[in-house]
Amino acid sequence: MAETEERADDTKGPINMWVADPNFKTDPRIIEAFDYAVTNGCTHYFPAPGFDGNILQKAIARYYLDDLAIHVDPLEEVCPTHGAQEALSLAIQAGTRPGDEIIVPEPTYSAFIAKLETFGVRPAFVPLAEEEHWRMDVDAVKSAMSEKTKMIYICNPNNPTGTVCSRGELDAVSELLKEHEHVSLLLDECYARILYDGSAHHTLLGDRSLLDQLYIVDSFSKTYAMTGWRLGYLVTGKKNADRVKLLSEEYNGGVSYAVQYAGAAALARCSESVRSMVAELDRRRLAMVDALAEVKDVVFETPAAGFEVFVDISAYAKDSVRLASELEKAAAVKTMPGVKYGPSGEGHLRLVFCAEGVPRVREGISRISGYLRGYR
To answer: Which CATH class is domain 28-269?
Structure first.
């Protein structure tokens, strides 16, 4: 069973509903693999003699084959990165130039939105339909395309809404890509294994005809409680992968081999730990949504994936930044303002349930409820 990094699970002190960092211990088998690599000489630029320098890429390819029946070439199409953050940045740089546009269905991952200004790329926001359970309107995505459009970014499962794209939505996006061969798709799949209520994750990676237009990003951070290890990867066609690898070498010379060795162990040996963690996260998810259901005049969708509930608090406040700040000061509950996730996120708060146990999740919602009762 996955072990939590426990604080005293009482109702005192500040409560973290802000950072999506699961408070679970990294599986001991991952740590043992890292220790083994370091002890046996993997402390230099390259793996020590006797170690397979491509072990992580091969483990990633094996995961896709065994779990999803999808073939990827481990040496030519898989790029290890310093977390999903670097993978996203490298994909933007490989697939766009300053002045280009990226279509961004939103609300979506806040750190991705923040990157675009850094790289001189303009977001073309397409609102997800809250009244349709935050579903993507592919016709609206198509209407947003212009001659400057070079990429579409989709976070699936979605952070912050917890929505999972249907097969039909992704098939429609696939057809759109086939109609516009100069446009690539950046698919952020970091929550692909953190699913609830029988939800299924779908990907376009299995369509080899689209591979040169796809950048698939995933991370070990969420799935294996490895946020501090800074390990992720990107899967794309060979031409794109070659450019990504050149950029990565320019920035940092590659990911620590000992960390890659640990990541390979995670994929090969830790599926049961993932299932155990997701089961505990589900308990927290249900505790949060049950508590929120008792809060007057807030609206939310029960998430099908991920760590978050995206809560409409517009009946109380239109300025989510101000409300989040006031909740932190007056109620000692730290939350994320919804506007960080795109224009459609204003009037919402993102509340994570991965960083605290069930009693403190309930206490956090109780504090928020008490504050809101006196807010208007």
So the answer is: alpha beta
